[in-house]
Design brief:
The chain is an alpha/beta fold. It starts with 8 loop residues before the first strand and ends in a 7-residue tail after the last helix. The chain is globular and about 45 Å long. Helix 1 packs parallel to helix 2. It is built from 10 helices and 12 strands. Strands 1-4-5-6-7-10-11-12 form an 8-stranded parallel β-barrel, surrounded by 7 helices.
Length: about 260
């Protein structure tokens, strides 16, 4: 029987560096995966529900390259897409929304300046603000990391997630650094706890390797959306096959 709640979303993620898509494992060892605009269009055509583009080296010179890419993506695809990386103030949000993005993802900047969440929600509406949280299960519990996973903060994951929701973020994009790129499944226990503790949708990231992992993240992890990169980029799983499989398993997805 199909679960008739809101349809679960499948979201390919494209990490962009110097104008090309790259993918690593545990946030390191990057390799090229092709042109982000072409890939984005292919995913849109294949039935992806949304896309995420992250400028992973958002230094000043590369921002122009990334903004140009956002404009090109907006011209080619007809599904919502989120952009993130190097967004530190409202003017950055403005620039990317004007280039055609539907939503903005903030991460380290939100931890440095939590008021940025309130500002984005106030100016553009909560639906525009996706708060990305990179966290790792350390010996003393789940803690948030910044600077692309390089620096631990003293912010506990669940505490920060609640604050993010209270400040007006529309969604949380949670990446488990322990699971990123290793293809052993998502952090379902932590995801289920997040789903129970916050009232906004949670996008799961980090760990997709097999179709069963998507089924598990929706059933056990209670995620609203599942994000993945390399399994899609390198053709290990196709979106039409994945959606047919999930539908067969009783999970409500748009086909």
């Amino acid at each position: 029987m199909i679960n008739k709640g809101l349809a679960k979303r499948i979201v390919p993620c494209l990490d962009v560096k110097n104008g090309e898509t790259v993918k690593g494992t545990n946030f390191i060892n990057l390799r090229s995966a092709g042109d982000p605009v072409e890939l984005g269009k292919a995913y849109s055509d294949a039935g992806a529900d949304e896309l995420v583009f992250l400028d992973i080296t958002a230094s000043f010179e590369e921002r122009k390259t990334f903004t140009d890419m956002v404009t090109r993506v907006a011209a080619e695809i007809n599904i919502p897409f989120t952009v993130g990386g190097g967004i530190n103030e409202i003017t950055d949000v403005d620039r990317l929304l004007n280039a055609g993005a539907d939503k903005i993802s903030i991460n380290s900047a939100a931890i440095r300046n939590p008021n940025l969440i309130d500002e984005i929600a106030h100016h553009y509406g909560s639906q525009v603000c996706v708060c990305a949280i990179d966290a790792r299960l350390d010996e003393d519990g789940w803690y948030c990391y910044v600077k692309g996973g390089r620096e631990r903060t003293e912010l506990p994951l669940f505490e920060w997630a609640k604050e993010v929701a209270d400040r007006g973020a529309g969604e949380i994009l949670f990446t488990s650094m322990n699971h990123d790129g290793v293809k052993q499944g998502f952090a379902n226990e932590a995801l289920a706890q997040l789903a129970d503790e916050v009232s906004i949708p949670v996008i799961a990231s980090g760990g997709a390797g097999h179709m069963e992992h998507f089924k598990d993240v929706f059933e056990l992890g209670k995620a609203d959306a599942a994000l993945a990169a390399s399994v899609f980029h390198f053709g290990e799983i196709t979106i039409p096959d994945l959606k047919r499989y999930l539908r067969k398993e009783g999970i409500n997805v748009r086909i």
